[in-house]
Design goal:
It contains eleven helices and eleven strands. The strands form two sheets. Strands 4-5-7-6-8-9-10-11 form an eight-stranded mixed β-sheet, sandwiched between helices. A three-stranded mixed β-sheet has the order 2-1-3, with no helix packed on it.
């Protein structure tokens, strides 16, 4: 009998899926007679990924939805259908679970969407060499286009912001509002290598001003996408994505964003947890984006987790005030 706790990669060609009907993958290519009912092997070429039947996570009642982009199965949440699309995009090393407390309130009046970046959450995990700025930004752009989203509001955190803002500066006519949280939008932004190399899901609680708001159940959810050394290579790859020279693959897209946001005329809220990092960089970002408003919270970098109540209040207020 197959031990479901040990699933083998087979020649880098196989995927194990807990809900094959929800994906757009091909039919099984190998007999699954020995697999439990909730697991199925499907082909996906050059990619490698394990998608097991995940346990229930605290505060996560949302059904899985999938779209295939650039050969990758991208997981997302899609709640509420009565209003403007509000798309939430996480950063490193989080996943769409970070938005679980915001999704219900937003979906009561809007269509609330939250995707998992490739390699994160329930989305497929490609070869780590594919983790670069252009690829991630293309996935975000393709997500918006493939779902036919129009006049959207984007709520962005950490790496989710630069990936999405490349789309924004190229397609400002399709973006009605921006909410930007604790991120980096300039080519001179640096994270010390000794810090970047130590980023793991533990930092979500360790960096919080209010660690009591980040439960142990929540931390189990943040660690769930990274059960082994192979899966952990995704957040390790991000440490190398900061542009440390004009020749770095991230430099040109970051420069495009750095220059492009200065020409935007989109209602923008810069919502920043300044409890540990201070407000200087947030003020710089706010000044770069014409007409933006800066709101500071006594929270750490992962502000939606550290201070979810104030984040919810400010987001809903922004949507209401700008009639979005």
């Amino acid at each position: 009998m197959l031990n479901v706790g040990i699933l083998l990669f087979l020649h880098d060609l196989l995927v194990v899926s807990s809900d094959p009907a929800s994906t757009s993958y091909n039919s099984p290519i190998l007999s699954a007679d020995r697999l439990p009912d909730n697991l199925k092997i499907t082909a996906i070429g050059r990619l490698r990924m394990i998608r097991q039947g995940w346990p229930y996570f605290d505060g996560w009642p949302f059904p899985e939805r999938w779209v295939q982009l650039d050969g990758l199965g991208i997981h997302y949440v899609d709640e509420g259908y009565g209003g403007r699309p509000v798309v939430m995009i996480h950063g490193n090393p989080a996943w769409s679970y970070m938005w679980r407390k915001l999704i219900p309130s937003v979906s009561s009046s809007h269509r609330a969407l939250a995707l998992d970046l490739m390699g994160f959450g329930k989305s497929d995990k490609p070869n780590p060499t594919l983790h670069d700025f252009p690829h991630h930004a293309r996935i975000v752009s393709d997500f918006i286009q493939s779902l036919g989203l129009r006049n959207i509001v984007l709520i962005l955190h950490d790496w989710g912001a630069p990936f999405a803002l490349q789309y924004v500066v190229r397609n400002p006519q399709n973006v009605a509002g921006l909410i930007i949280m604790n991120t980096f939008l300039t080519t001179d932004f640096r994270v010390p290598p000794n810090v970047a190399s130590k980023i793991t899901p533990s930092i979500i609680k360790d960096s919080a001003v209010h660690p009591e708001n980040v439960s142990e159940e929540a931390m189990k959810a943040y660690w769930a996408p990274f059960p082994d050394d192979e899966s952990k290579r995704v957040y390790q790859a991000f440490a190398r994505m900061f542009p440390d020279s004009p020749f770095h693959p991230s430099f040109r897209p970051m420069k495009e964003i750095e220059q492009g946001v200065t020409h935007l005329s989109i209602p923008t809220l810069v919502l920043w947890g300044t409890g540990k990092a201070g407000a200087a960089y947030a003020e710089r970002i706010s000044k770069m984006i014409p007409g933006s408003t800066l709101s500071s919270l006594n929270a750490g970098h992962f502000v939606p987790e550290d201070d979810p109540d104030d984040v919810e209040e400010l987001v809903l207020e922004f949507l209401k005030n700008h009639k979005l």
